[in-house]
Amino acid sequence: PLFPGITAYPDVMACGLSAMNPVVHPPGVLMNAGRVEYSRGEFYFYDEGVSPTVADVIMRVDDERLAVGRALGYDLTPANEAFHKAGFGPAGDLWATINGSRMLTALKAPGNLQSRWLTEDIPYGLAAWSKLGAQFGIETPLMRSFVDIGSIVMGFDGWTEGRGPQELGIAGMDIEELKGFLATGVR
After folding, report:
1. Residues 157/151, Cβ–Cβ less than 8 Å
2. DSSP state of 5
3. Angle at the Cα of 34 from the Cα atoms of 54 and 92, rounded to 5 degrees
4. Which of 82, 84, 63 is nearest to 143 (CA)?
5. From start to end of the chain, where are the E strands?
6. Scanning 25, 45, 48, 143, which has the fewest C-beta atoms within 10 Å of its C-beta?
7. Helical pair 127-135 and 141-154, crossing angle rounded to 10 deg
8. Which of these, 161, 169, 77, lies nearest to 132 by C-alpha position?
9. 31-79 pLDDT, tens digit each
10. What letter does residue 41 receive in the DSSP assignment?
11. Domains recognised in the chain with CATH numbers
């Protein structure tokens, strides 16, 4: 391949559902909100903030992302495997992969809660995925919880700020119609 380690996706939806930032950042930041605010950026997000418990919550959010993907016919890579495949750390569960990564454990958290880790990853990641899941009967209670809590923290509605099926012009489409639209751009 021209670029080793780069994954070709069947369409833009599979690519979007493969983003890891919305899976990791909102749970990690919101579960460490006090530490982020107190430290003003002097806080190693992955080393100090992604404890085994936080990693477990992240993987449960990831389970919801994977369920939305399965409903659409995608075989998405779980977060722990994606981190390993990207070269971030050794194979294993998410905490082991992160804990074994010199690169990730050296990264600091944002200096405040008004960062793209929430202001982008909640409305354009979790909220969008949750709305998409709802269209196809997939429950996403953790995503919904993080969008709701994140909306309070951010001071704006993460549900209305981002994009969902309505804004993307795919509301009401069944799987076959959606797949056709993604392949051709024609409704």
Report:
1. yes
2. T
3. 15
4. 63
5. none
6. 48
7. 140
8. 169
9. 999 999 999 889 999 999 999 999 999 999 999 999 999 999 999 999 9
10. T
11. 16-184 (1.10.1040.10)
